[in-house]
Design goal:
The chain contains nine helices and seven strands; from the N terminus they run H-E-H-E-H-E-H-E-H-E-H-E-H-H-H-E. The protein is an alpha/beta fold. The longest helix has 29 residues.
């Protein structure tokens, strides 16, 4: 019975930002649980590259799309192409720009908000409508610890990730009664490209590690279990949750 609750056989999962890092790990975990994968990233190869190879090794089907998440037209076209097929949507595509708020270029602000918030609403609106029409589905956003905290030198990223937490709850309120579960995962400090600058700063890295009860930076693979849970029948009564996967950071 427990295995059946987490079995995603026959499901199609759309995962954005799946070419590397957290999105790669999420797509891999979903495929290992039985889901076929439709992946989209700005430079995603049609055959999927490494993530496509891994998904096929797990015996699942893979489809890759190159999508510019700065472009509403590109995101809309992609959403329309997958809306009638997606049982699971993982909104993970994102970008980050680092500069003090007083010096933060406005074009960086616009870019981060477009990619990390605007495109995610557009895609979710299209895919969510398809799920509602078919009687259900699972939507998982990638939030952040900065959905709860302010961060340093990342005003656009913090604003977008705070809004993702609110959007998760707003959509959950509307769609839970329609059998569409909307939740989010808030990764902690994970060793990916986005945190490379922090890990290369000895003082910042040490201060971060000092606060993490687990005593280590997270790995992208640490997000796999939470992703499968929120995409599976095991989470059918879970709605509007922003789930930290952070080694205990938020409990400190």
């Amino acid at each position: 019975m427990t295995n059946e609750l987490f079995d995603l056989s026959g499901r199609v999962a759309v995962v954005t930002g799946a070419r590397r890092g957290i999105g790669f790990a999420m797509a891999e975990a979903l495929a290992a649980a039985g889901a076929d994968i439709i992946a989209a990233s700005a430079s995603q190869e049609a055959d999927g590259g490494e993530i496509g190879r891994r998904v096929r090794e797990l015996g699942r089907e893979f489809e890759g799309h190159a999508v510019d998440f700065r472009s509403r037209e590109a995101v809309t076209a992609f959403g329309e192409a997958v809306a009638d097929r997606a049982d699971i949507l993982v909104n993970n595509a994102g970008t980050i720009r680092r500069a003090p708020a007083a010096e933060h270029p406005l074009e960086w602000w616009d870019e981060v908000l477009d990619v990390n918030l605007g495109s995610q609403f557009v895609l979710t609106q299209l895919v969510g409508a398809g799920m509602i029409a078919r009687g259900g589905g699972k939507i998982v956003f990638t939030a952040s610890l900065l959905s709860f905290q302010g961060g340093i030198n990342v005003p656009g990223y913090t604003a977008a990730k705070s809004a993702i937490a609110g959007l998760t709850k707003a959509l959950a309120n509307e769609w839970a009664s329609k059998n569409v579960n909307v939740n989010a995962i808030a990764p902690g400090y994970i060793a990916t490209d986005n945190t490379e600058a922090l890990r290369e700063d000895p003082a910042r890295s040490a201060s971060i590690l000092d606060r993490i009860p687990a005593g280590r930076w997270g790995q992208a693979s640490d997000l796999g279990g939470a992703t499968v849970f929120l995409a599976s029948r095991a989470s059918d009564y879970v709605s509007g949750v922003v789930l930290p996967v952070d080694g205990g950071w938020m409990g400190r």
